[in-house]
Specification:
Blueprint lengths: L1 E2 L6 E2 L11 H10 L4 H5 L2
Antiparallel strand pairs: 1-2
Length: 43
């Protein structure tokens, strides 16, 4: 689980060693953080 300190927003991030996160799952996680995929890729 990821929690943003500023406002306490929570995003669930799965951890499964050895498994690749599917593109749609990654997109959903990024959007749950409040970032766009473009903003995320610029980090």
């Amino acid at each position: 689980m990821w929690v943003r300190d500023i406002d306490g927003k929570i995003a669930i991030v799965p951890r499964h060693p050895g498994k690749i996160i599917k593109r749609k799952t990654l997109k959903d996680i990024i959007e749950a953080t409040g970032l766009s995929t473009k903003e995320f890729s610029e980090l």
